Amino acid sequence: MLDNLLRLSSVIGRFAQKGQVRILSKLSVENSAKSCRGKMSLPKPNIVFVLGAPGSGKGTQCEKIVKNFGYVHLSAGDLLREERSREGSEYGELIENYIRNGKIVPVDVTCALLENAMTQNMKVSGKDSFLIDGFPRNQDNLDGWQRRMSEKVNLKFVIVFNCPEDACVERCINRGKSGSNRSDDNIESLKKRFDTFINDSLPIINHYKEQNLVREVDATKNPDEVFEDVKVLFAD
């Protein structure tokens, strides 16, 4: 065994004289560094909340913002509907019952879907600016977001699209007639949703007003005219 150790020592010595031991060590360090960089956390996403009554035109304006300013549009409602229809979803039946009754889905479900969508988008596209449409809608949403997500994102501001109930209901009914395939685009559900917005979402808007984060937009005009006002908010 002593002879083997002496031969091994001699081999290492020859490699060291040639600088090859240092080279192997350097390669090891570089590979470790690359591995660490690969595990680094993603940057904080930039967030703009988009609020307004059902039918106020949030989705339409978000499409225009995406096209002109490169944001990623995440609709809390769309994410919930997709999860509701996803085969094998553990939340599907629960989400269906809440949506049909015009109620707000539990915040932990919504936050989980939003966080996952942002993470996947940043990994795939590299984009880190998001429009979150229709969230937070009530105090429970706000509390859950503050608890789970507020430290993980940069909230830039909150857009609020203002539109009266009769105009919103008419838009949603027309959307249903044109084949939106949304089970909640009916008079009964719409009135419940509008009442929910007034009772639950307005206090959230007031909360962000106190922080000077709310940017209000008149949504009664046609979509192109509304977007002229929206563009000003993103020009800075």
UniProtKB/TrEMBL annotation:
Binding site for a ribonucleoside 5'-phosphate: 81, 103-105, 134-137, 182, 193
Recorded superkingdom: Eukaryota
EC number: 2.7.4.14
Residues holding CMP: 141
InterPro entries referenced in this protein's UniProt entry, alphabetically: Adenylat/UMP-CMP_kin, Adenylat_kinase_CS, P-loop_NTPase, UMP_CMP_kinase
Molecular-function annotations in GO: ATP binding; CMP kinase activity; dCMP kinase activity; UMP kinase activity
Keyword annotations: ATP-binding, Cytoplasm, Kinase, Nucleotide-binding, Nucleus, Pyrimidine biosynthesis, Transferase
Pfam short name (any one): ADK
Catalysed reactions listed for this entry: CMP + ATP = CDP + ADP; UMP + ATP = UDP + ADP; dCMP + ATP = dCDP + ADP
Subcellular location field: Cytoplasm; Nucleus
Family, per entry: Belongs to the adenylate kinase family. UMP-CMP kinase subfamily.
Listed name of the protein: UMP-CMP kinase
